[in-house]
Specification:
With 158 residues, the protein is an all-alpha fold. 73% of the residues lie in helices and 0% in strands. The longest helix is centred in the middle third of the chain and has 31 residues.
Length: 158
């Protein structure tokens, strides 16, 4: 979270500095890292990084209708059919540890998606918007992997 706070602050300051450099002569805004789109992206993504817990909560609310991720220990309640063979306590603790790792990777994926969206105005036509959105959605699914596995189980098992 500290990295996101620092990166968000740097992006906001960089956006303000780029806008201030070209404030007197708006015609000098060109494509690339000094375009109006890049300045707006710096401001928006910087604000998202500063408020990352709210962004994660909003994305969870959008996809799962809850603003908090389920705890990894709840996998046995959300997906009982898939987890019924896990009777050993060691196996259960391994599953919980793996789910926590997946949740951390999901958070990193969301942060990467924000950085990809920040780079999209600088490189138009490179597909970075789609890649960034994919990282955001995949990261959200990974952060709430417990509920997602339960949804997949109910879809498959019925």
């Amino acid at each position: 979270m500290a990295f996101c706070f620092i990166a968000g602050t740097v992006l906001l300051i960089r956006g303000v500095l780029i806008a201030a450099q070209h404030g007197d002569t708006p015609s000098r805004f060109v494509s690339g890292s000094h375009s109006k789109g890049a300045v707006i992206a710096h401001w928006v993504i910087g604000a998202f990084l500063l408020g990352l817990p709210a962004v994660v909560g909003a994305s969870l609310e959008t996809l799962f209708m809850t603003s908090t991720a389920a705890q990894p220990t709840e996998i046995f309640a959300y997906a009982p059919e898939a987890m019924q063979s896990m009777t050993n306590d060691n196996a259960r603790s391994i599953v919980v540890a793996l789910l926590r790792i997946v949740q951390i990777i999901g958070l990193i994926g969301m942060i990467r998606g924000l950085f990809l969206l920040n780079a999209a105005p600088v490189h138009p036509g490179s597909g970075l918007v789609g890649k960034g959105a994919t990282h955001l959605i995949g990261g959200t699914l990974a952060i709430n992997i417990v509920v997602f596995v339960g949804m997949i189980e109910s879809l498959v098992v019925g």
